[in-house]
Target: Pyridoxal phosphate phosphatase phospho2
Amino acid sequence: MEPVDKQLIVFDFDWSMADQDSDRYVFEVVAPDLRRKMKGLKDQIQWTDLVAQTLAEAHGRGITRAQIEHALKIMPFHPAMARAVDKLKKAGYTDFLCLSNANSIFISTILEDKKLTHIFSEIITNPAEWDGELLRLRRRVDPEGPQHSCTVGCSPNMCKGEELEAFLARHGKEFDRIVYVGDGSNDFCPILRLREQDLVLCRSHRGLQRRIDKEGAEKGLKAKIQYWAGAWEVEEIFATL
Ligand SMILES: [Mg+2]
Ligand SMILES: [Zn+2]
Model:
């Protein structure tokens, strides 16, 4: 790739930086019957609300903070991904932004365990906090307040495209290149905001690839797309940025 003075790497978290989905994995470890129940309810209840409700239900049956933290710490996270982001961060010309539909506690617990808390200059996600043994989780966009105006299909809890634009406006500086690492259908909205010199590192065979194939041309997607399957490939690509 062309050398740049300043670049931004935007990371989705679940199945992009991490090699699993934190919202689902935690319950697969601590209470698989609740994981099954979520699968049945996911088309009826907004996802963030469903995770919040399931965390409360887990707490009600005595599942502890330590159990949830343990599940997060053993969740698959590829060492090649840890190496890749650490090396690029230390080279000095890359800012990292996390844009995730998980939550602040899941992400910070995993990053602390992997010694990666220095990577992100900002983590934009759903707010969560420990209240004793109960993890309280809320949507980033408060259901009682003004809602986002996304027309691309983002979930009510957050529009990743609007969040990316707001971050860029807040920073007030131009990045020569933006690289977006994502896998899910909700990563489609933010990549529509990217320019021709930007790059999407799309994980193969998941929701984002399906949306790119189906709607990319019609919605005017401009960025270059590069597909990857394993974190070791992201490490190879990062070495060329
Ligand atoms: Mg994801
Ligand atoms: Zn959106």
